Amino acid sequence: MKCQEAIILISGKLDGELIQKQEQELDLHMQTCEVCRKEYDDLLKLREVTSNMRFTDLPDRYWAGYWNDIYNRLERGIGWIFVSIGAIIILAFGAWEFFDKFLLDTNNPLLLRFGVGAGIIGLIFLLISVLREKLFARKHERYKEVER
């Protein structure tokens, strides 16, 4: 057996995935090859150490500090900027196509075009009003710093 084959089989031996014949060949090789035997011993020690490790949950005070960190705010802000730019481009393209294909099309009745246009303008004004109100309320929130 070559060392390259043995290195591959070592992981299988540690995980208990080898058939008996493979394990016997690997053991025979490691009796004569110090490099592969050392590799096996090192991985066995590493496995023992890492099997005793456990993740611990961070207290809530660490998470509160994490979300208030300026880096995270900047990261989210940049993400929202790109999402907004994409949405504006898509909406502008859709508005142009709607304007060009529906409102300027003389085959559609004038009253229908006027009604749809007025409805869309009304929705835009309502959307702007709601967004402005939400932003104002968010900016002047009195309980923003209170933890739950």
Note down, in words, how this protein is organized:
The structure is a single chain. The chain has helices at residues 3-15, 20-32, 34-51, 60-68, 70-103, 110-139. With 148 residues, the protein is mostly helical. The protein folds into 2 domains: 3-51, no CATH class; 61-139, no CATH class. α1 (3-15) packs across α2 (20-32). The longest helix is centred in the middle third of the chain and has 34 residues, at 70-103. The radius of gyration is 33 Å and the shape is elongated.
How much helix, percentage-wise, in residues? over 70%
The helix count comes to 6
Number of E-state strands: 0
Q: Mean of residue pLDDT?
A: 86
State the order of secondary-structure elements, H for helix, E for strand. Answer: HHHHHH
Q: Provide the structure class.
A: mainly alpha
The total number of structural domains is 2
What is the structure about, briefly put?
The chain has 148 residues and is an all-alpha fold. The chain has six helices and no strands.
How would you summarize the topology of this molecule?
Elements: H1 3-15, H2 20-32, H3 34-51, H4 60-68, H5 70-103, H6 110-139
Helix pairs in contact: 1-2, 1-3, 2-3
Question: What labels would you give this structure?
Answer:
148 residues, mainly alpha, 2 domains, 6 helices, 79% helix
